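Subgroup meeting minutes
Present: P.N., E.W., G.H.
Scribe: E.W.

1. P.N. recapped why we're keeping a running log of single-chain structure predictions: easier to compare across weeks, and new members can see raw inputs and outputs side by side.
2. G.H. added today's entry (161 aa).
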Amino acid sequence: MSKSKHVSETPATQFLRKHGVAFTEHAYEYVEHGGTAESARQLGEDEHAVVKTLIMEDEEARPLVILMHGDREVSTKNLARQIGAKKVAPCKPEVAQRHSGYLVGGTSPFGTRKAMPVYVEASVLELPRIFINGGKRGYLVGIDPRELVRLLRAVPVSAAL
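Output recorded in log:
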């Protein structure tokens, strides 16, 4: 694991610095539709430790964030049941961008435009370190996953497929 070159500040890195979070920067060549498999391959990391930030909404179009292992999908049915919603579905890219302030492919849970409830796959919190989007395409930050609960009040759920 190599510490990559410094990438310009993003709302996410500003948020992390403001809250005194130690993080490493990992830049990679963004590939359209490459997802976590591509970033993990380029960075030489396990895709299970690369966490994707997904913006979804409930039946009343209220936005929420779910943080999931890169190599897993979200069961929207299980997620809805656990958070007390009738249904949960992914937002359209332009809606997700409006809620988060980030381009799809560069969405970070840190420094979002709107405050949204954050849910995290419980097993993510068991990893020693995770790689999560730092606020722009082609840029991940490495952090202690417990920071998700401390900073974002992320609620653990079991919604992985």
